[in-house]
Amino acid sequence: MKKSSVLSIIFSKAIGILAFLILLAIAKVLTNYIDNSVYNSVINFLFDNLLLALIIFFFALVSEIFWEFKLPFNLPAPILSAALSSYIITYIYRLFLLIKSLTYFELELPIDLIYMIAFIGVIIIGYSIIVAKAVKKDGKKEGIKKEVEWKDVGKQFKLFMYNLGKKANKSTKEKEVKKKRKKRKPKKVIEKVETTKSSITIKS
Fold it and tell me: What distance separates the 2 farthest-apart alpha carbons in the chain?
């Protein structure tokens, strides 16, 4: 994982949180000038659930960072995404209750069932994505190996044989040179012996 990608994720999420807080503060100031019960209810809802919104931003940041990691460090990512989905559902459900109170809309949602389906579904989908990426990566590696093995085997084999022959020729030449040197050494010894003999006879 590149540091630049992590920094860009943190930077983008920080800008999103900052923009949300600024807009929320402006909207709160406008409640002094806008006399509307629906508008005031919505702004109060946003302020009452500000902590939940910040938790959602935090889990979104952490889960996205873990998704950038490679296997096995990205294994917590689906769990974090599942937790994020639970907080998002909580926020949407509270918003649904607000709309229900403002419009007198009669509808009951099986929230516990929605929590369970979303949590399990996100975990299954998340790990399926991780497995699919790992299989795809292995497939690419095998494809590269096959290309090298079948397409470039002729060139590699020729180059190997050429280098092998070159080394063999070099070693044989070195051996021949060593043999010649060994053959020359006795001649020099004989010449020395003869010179010593001749010098002895001359002295005598």
Answer: 143
